[in-house]
């Protein structure tokens, strides 16, 4: 009888672990992508993109960022992605780094192009758009304002 | 295994011999720990003793762990909601509750509860066996009391703590869900989605489990060591029980700080 109760306890404990890993954690999405193929893209600036960030197309998660490296030949960031093998994208698709919400996590947005050929494993996406860096944006804004103010002052 | 032999006679000035005493105590404690680990693994070959102890430590602690987990989840749900509402991000409630539980509260509170619930009873049991000369009797019969009495309890406690911590965290998540989603009305979809987006199964859940395994070793070793070396008198046993709670709790909290610094400092 003791065995039954102990068995129940151990099963409950492992059940709780599985619950935490799969239901509360991201094990299902980390493992459950199934078959993937690899594609990479070069960005001038990746902002705060992290490995394992989502790759979305039309808002649907179609892959994950596998690896981010710095390429010292082109001085660009080389981002490797694992894309779900179920989804094919035209060869001239473009990749953008986007932010979910104003301050949310960054992800890669994949926009399909019109090419007949499809992306194959190991291909590089050529058309990319870097992350919007808030500091640069504010800098440009201030610079613009200052230039405006300067002209206004000169005109008077 | 004999108790730590007091360093024989003075080998020099008082500070030196005191330092030697400390070194000897640390060495003896380490040897005792390694011996418990080895004999604990060996005792799995005759699992009946260990299973009985899992029943005693694990099953009997289920009620306190499950109920406290649920209540902590309730409180986290409420407090988290009040704080997050100021920033307009109530949807992150699931993430907040789950991260706090799997990283910190689950392992630590479970360990503290078990130090009180199971650690004391282990110490008292072993201490009373010693006071009643049962340990001596075993030695007379050439039965190693460390292998027969301590090792199964040790391995059982080490196995039970991570499982109980996982149950605690799971109940806490459920508690947070009940208060946040069912009670206050946070959107259920974003509650779970934010949680899954932010909780890493290896870095968060896995490290939490690792923590509770370390705490399991800490509690089991403290309780058994203190019980086995208690003065064989009623007063000695009562003192040993208190020592177990104090030392085990402090050790858990101290280790928690070190482990947290090691595990979560580099995001």
What assembly state would you assign to the polypeptide chains in this entry? Answer: heterodimer
Q: Beta fraction of the residues of chain A?
A: 25-35%
Largest interface: A-B, 26 and 29 residues
Largest sheet of chain B: none
Number of β-strand runs of chain A: 8
List keywords for this structure.
heterodimer, A: 156 residues, alpha/beta, 8-stranded mixed beta sheet, 3 helices, 8 strands, B: 267 residues, mainly alpha, 8 helices, 85% helix, 0% strand, elongated
Indicate the topology.
The complex is a heterodimer of chains A (156) and B (267).
Chain A: H1 2-24, H2 27-31, E1 36-43, E2 54-57, E3 60-71, E4 76-84, E5 94-99, E6 106-111, E7 123-125, E8 127-129, H3 134-155
Chain B: H1 14-43, H2 47-86, H3 93-131, H4 134-140, H5 145-184, H6 188-198, H7 201-228, H8 234-264
Protein architecture, described:
- The complex is a heterodimer of chains A (156) and B (267).
- Chain A has 156 residues and is an alpha/beta fold.
- Chain A is built from three helices and eight strands, in the order H-H-E-E-E-E-E-E-E-E-H.
- Chain A has an eight-stranded mixed sheet with strand order 7-1-4-3-2-6-5-8, with no helix packed on it.
- Chain A is extended, with a radius of gyration of 23 Å.
- The model of chain A has no long low-confidence stretch (mean pLDDT 83).
- Chain B is mainly alpha-helical.
- Chain B is built from eight helices and no strands.
- Chain B has helices at 14-43, 47-86, 93-131, 134-140, 145-184, 188-198, 201-228, 234-264.
- Chain B is elongated and about 65 Å long.
- The relative contact order of chain B is 0.15.
- The A-B interface holds A 2-3, 5-6, 8-10, 12-17, 19-30, 105 and B 51-52, 54-55, 58-59, 62, 98, 102, 162-164, 166-167, 169-171, 173, 192, 195-197, 199-201, 204-205, 208-209.
């Amino acid at each position: 009888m003791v065995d039954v109760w102990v068995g129940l306890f151990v099963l409950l404990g492992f059940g709780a672990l599985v619950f935490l890993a799969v239901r509360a954690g991201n094990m299902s999405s980390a493992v459950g992508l199934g078959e993937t193929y690899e594609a990479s893209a070069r960005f001038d600036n990746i902002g705060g993109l992290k490995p394992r960030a989502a790759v979305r197309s039309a808002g649907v998660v179609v892959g994950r960022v596998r690896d981010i490296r710095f390429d010292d030949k082109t001085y660009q960031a080389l981002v490797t992605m694992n894309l779900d093998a179920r989804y094919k994208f035209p060869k001239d698709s473009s990749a953008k780094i986007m932010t979910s919400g104003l301050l949310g996590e960054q992800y890669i947005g994949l926009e399909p192009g019109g090419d007949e050929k499809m992306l194959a494993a190991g291909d590089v996406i050529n058309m990319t758009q870097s992350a919007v860096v808030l500091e640069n944006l504010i800098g440009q804004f201030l610079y613009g304002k200052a230039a405006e103010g300067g002209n206004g002052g000169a005109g008077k | 295994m004999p108790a730590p032999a007091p360093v024989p006679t003075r080998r020099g000035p008082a500070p030196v011999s005191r330092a030697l005493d400390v070194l000897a105590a640390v060495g003896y404690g380490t040897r005792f720990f390694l011996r418990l680990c080895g004999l604990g693994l060996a005792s799995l070959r005759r699992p009946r003793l260990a299973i009985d102890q899992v029943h005693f430590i694990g099953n009997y602690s289920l009620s306190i762990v499950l109920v406290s987990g649920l209540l902590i989840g309730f409180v986290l749900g409420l407090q988290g909601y009040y704080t997050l509402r100021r920033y307009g991000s109530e949807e992150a409630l699931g993430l907040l509750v789950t991260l706090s539980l799997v990283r910190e509260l689950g392992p630590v509170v479970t360990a503290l509860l078990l130090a009180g619930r199971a650690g004391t009873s282990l110490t008292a049991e072993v201490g009373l066996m010693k006071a009643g000369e049962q340990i001596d009797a075993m030695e007379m019969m050439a039965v190693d009391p460390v292998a027969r009495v301590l090792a199964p309890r040790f391995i059982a406690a080490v196995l039970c703590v991570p499982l109980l911590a996982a149950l605690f965290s799971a109940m806490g998540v459920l508690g947070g869900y009940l208060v946040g989603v069912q009670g206050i009305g946070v959107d259920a979809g974003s509650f779970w989605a934010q949680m899954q987006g932010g909780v890493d199964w290896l870095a968060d859940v896995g490290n939490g489990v690792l923590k509770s395994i370390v705490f399991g070793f800490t509690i089991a070793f403290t309780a058994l060591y203190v019980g086995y070396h208690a003065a064989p008198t009623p007063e000695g046993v009562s003192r040993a029980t208190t020592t177990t709670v104090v030392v085990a709790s402090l050790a858990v909290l101290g280790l928690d700080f070190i482990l947290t610094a090691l595990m979560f400092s580099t995001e």
